[in-house]
Design a protein that fits this description.
Layout (H helix, E strand, L loop, with lengths): L4 E8 L3 H9 L1 H7 L5 E3 L6 E6 L2 E11 L3 E7 L14 E11 L2 E9 L8 H28 L3
Antiparallel strand pairs: 1-7, 2-3, 3-4, 4-5, 5-6, 6-7
Amino acid sequence: MNTNTIEREIAIEAPVERVWSLITQAEHLGTWFGDAGADIDLRPGGALEVRWDGHTLIGTVDAVEPTSRFAFRWHQLDTPAGAELTEQNSTLVEFSLTSEGDTTHVRVVESGFGSLALPAEEQVAMHADHSGGWPVELGHLKDHAAVVAA
């Protein structure tokens, strides 16, 4: 079993431009992925913050290819504020979007669990946790797309 990478896909009944905005605009990202808001500097190297009640995701934008690819690296370990994101303390999340008429196929790949500075059993446990989380989050994205005005 591969415990370094997670791959999930979903089809969303919405044009690719709308799904792109739901994934990359703070007002949407902080609704379907987080539940307490978000901030994003949408450029490679830009800061990313997604908030939940009691938890904050801190990351850095890795790639922005409008309507096709968005990637960010996010902290997975307790690290000091402002600490550099490295393969030892973060994983890489990549969203790929492809259009088929008014349907957008979203593929998310999260990788790097095996490089985290954690004991192997903790790497495996984190991978399992995130493996279960992505279907839920992609379901939230699909639900959000259904209620956001075209």
